[in-house]
UniProtKB/TrEMBL annotation:
Species in which this protein is naturally found: Fimbriimonas ginsengisoli Gsoil 348
Domain PDZ: 255-324
Superkingdom of origin organism: Bacteria
GO molecular function: peptidase activity
Pfam families per the UniProt record, alphabetical: PDZ_6
UniProt GO BP: proteolysis
Protein name: Serine protease
Keywords: Hydrolase, Protease
InterPro entries xrefs: PDZ (IPR001478), PDZ_6 (IPR041489), PDZ_sf (IPR036034)
């Protein structure tokens, strides 16, 4: 993955603040971007991912099941919702009418962004420059409390403007849609920008907990500094590949359980969904997961990392303990959408 990316907006004033190289990159990307509008008011950007007219957008920019979008040519198309993903906040849209061959599709990310990388963020008002800060954070998403990796970005823009932004790289990889933000001036996490993303307080540095350190991180520029997050590229890749499949279904791996850090090591099970993969394998609340598919589980973070690398439908061995009893259980990895969690 190369060093430059873009978070999507449209506005001549915004574009004018970019470097010449950044503007050239944006001009190449622009034919592959559609602006979602409501009575000519821009709501956000949608990025082409298939020459058949499939686009993805942040769910914060999508109104209902069908809406109008404007292409670079000025022509309007109708966008119809085909699928939604709760973990990334991405929505799959079908454009009609659509003529194949008029734009180059974006692709799923191959690898995480590297800290220090400069990107651009594009909202409904034009592209702005952003910077990748870290890929080491984790957060809990939605009612299912899905533990996912997060990528942290910083850029100069008010937090209320970025909720529907997409983030893409210079080489045409979609990084994700911006979710939770933290504003330097207010030192507090902003929720509700397209999806609930609750950052784990135990796994991130004080700067992201609203402590004084953030105000000192002002070398990035003189304007208002906003910190924002996307779900990690590993998840985004699986979601986009699922959207591109014939049934448009996302195959995020899941065992159908919720766990937390165990004081003595491992991850202790807090909830098991009835009929889930974990339930069928005999895993129960209070069991401590120590190993999955030969990989040691030290805590909730390593549980999430290991599970992200599993394949839906694969048979895996899970080592659990309860008191002095250690058991090896065979399980079949399920789909996150099929596992009912509270």
């Amino acid at each position: 993955m190369v060093s430059l990316g873009v978070a999507l907006i449209r506005n001549d004033l915004q574009i004018g603040r970019l470097t010449g190289r950044e503007q050239a990159i944006w001009r190449k990307m622009e034919p592959s971007i559609a602006t979602l509008v409501d009575e000519d008011r821009p709501l956000g950007a949608a990025a082409l991912i298939s020459d058949s007219g499939l686009f993805v957008a942040s769910r914060a920019a999508v109104r209902g099941e069908s809406m109008t979008a404007r292409l670079k040519s000025g022509r309007n198309v109708q966008m119809t919702v085909l699928a939604r993903d709760g973990s990334t906040g991405l929505v799959l849209l079908q454009a009609a009418p659509w003529v194949a061959g008029q734009a180059r599709p974006f692709v799923a990310p191959n690898a995480p962004e590297q800290p220090g990388v400069t990107l651009l963020a594009i909202l409904g008002t034009g592209p702005i420059r952003a910077q990748c800060v870290s890929t080491r954070h984790y957060g809990v998403i939605g009612k299912a409390r899905r533990f996912v990796p997060l990528t942290e970005f910083r850029f100069e823009a008010p937090a209320e403007l970025i909720g529907a932004a997409l983030v893409v790289c210079e080489d045409g990889e979609i990084v994700g849609s911006l979710n939770a933000t933290l504003r330097r001036q207010e030192n507090q996490t902003q929720q509700g920008l397209g999806q609930q993303a609750f950052v784990s307080q135990e796994k991130i540095p004080p700067v992201l907990r609203g402590l004084p350190g953030l105000a000192q991180q002002s070398t990035y520029g003189p304007g208002e500094l906003t910190v924002a997050y996307t779900v990690g590229s590993e998840v985004v890749r699986q979601v986009i590949n699922g959207f591109l499949s014939p049934d448009h279904k996302v195959n995020l791996p899941s065992l159908g359980l919720i766990c937390k850090d165990n004081i003595g090591g491992g991850a202790i099970v807090e909830f098991v969904a009835p009929g889930s993969s974990a339930d069928r394998a005999g895993i129960r609340v209070g069991d401590i997961i120590q190993d999955i598919a030969g990989q040691t589980i030290r805590d909730q973070v390593t549980f999430a990392r290991v599970m992200l690398n599993q394949r839906v439908g694969a048979k895996i061995a899970i080592r659990t303990s309860r008191g002095n009893i250690v058991q090896i259980r065979d399980a079949v990895v399920g789909r996150a959408e099929d596992e009912t969690l509270p």
